[in-house]
Amino acid sequence: MSPTAPAPGVLRVATWNVNSLKSRSAAIGRLIERARPDVLLLQETKATDVHPTAQAVLDIAGYHIAHVGSGQYNGVAIAALTPLRDVMRSGEFGDDVLDKEPRVISAVIDSTHGPIRFVSVYVPHGREVGHWHYDYKLAFLGALRQRVTAWLEEGHVVIGGDMNVAPTDSDIFHPDAFVGLTHVTAPEREALSALLGAGLVDLDVAQWGAHERRFTWWNHGLNYSRNLGMRIDLLAADPDLAAGLETTWIDHVERGAERPSDHAALIADLRLE
After folding, report:
1. Residue 114 to residue 14: CA distance in whole angstroms
2. Mapping DSSP to helix (H, G, I), strand (E, B) and coil, where does residue 164 land?
3. Which of 170, 177, 253, 258 is most buried, with most CB under 10 Å away?
């Protein structure tokens, strides 16, 4: 399930909630040495600026990076082997919801298939049903859908990140464990479905089907070894790019390492004709 080598000839895109860019610098270095993604979408960097250790890792490997963050919470980034242009960050959208916290960053990369806009997103948790953060979460997904719709009108789009929503009951280890909790409520699932309905294909579902129980998040402790997880990290692309999908991966190498993030990296290989 984990890529063991680079994939020449395809566009390899990875999304990973690293749960601290500083703490996961070495893990990022190991992932890019082993899998060599062309584009790496990062979430929960927990930093105002890219930590020097992480910057050094990316510089040595030849990656360009764009980041937005504010202190010890949130933060998103895009790292790529080719230059990034037309970068847009939270704080620059002119949208009160998307600008409220550093949770969205996008950039255009020129490929053999033409320009592609990549988006790294960290959807609000929601905390609990009825909390203001839950309402913020729903508003965020709605605002993101409008923004993605506009980007799709301009050209190709790949979006990845921690959506903090399990799309179906097949994406959680057991429905009984989530009764009354966020991540699984009908409004959240409808908001995520609407985002994808703007014109995006969920790549992992396209490859393996909607009921394969391919989780990307497990709480720390015994939950990982018992596979008590959720699928809340997604990679999605416009239908034209999705038509070139070769496979997707969930990186258990780093998730099974010492002191890992609670998320595994999700990786997709796209062949661009």
Report:
1. 19
2. coil
3. 253
Instruction: Single out the residue of 226, 231, 235 nearest to residue 196, CA to CA.
Output: 235
Give the tens place of pLDDT for each residue, 86-144: 999 999 999 999 999 999 999 999 999 999 999 999 999 999 999 999 999 999 999 99
Q: Residues with Cβ < 8 Å from 238, sequence gap 6 or more?
A: 152, 156, 157, 158, 199, 200, 201
Q: Is the pTM of this model over 0.90?
A: yes
What CA–CA distance (Å, rounded) separates 159 from 15? 9
| DSSP track, 212-273 | S----EE-SSTTTTTT-EE--EEEEE-HHHHTTEEEEEEEHHHHTSSS--SB-EEEEEE---
Strand partners, 159: 119, 236
Please tell me the CATH superfamily of domain 11-270, with its number: Endonuclease/exonuclease/phosphatase (3.60.10.10)
Tokens of 99: 């600008």
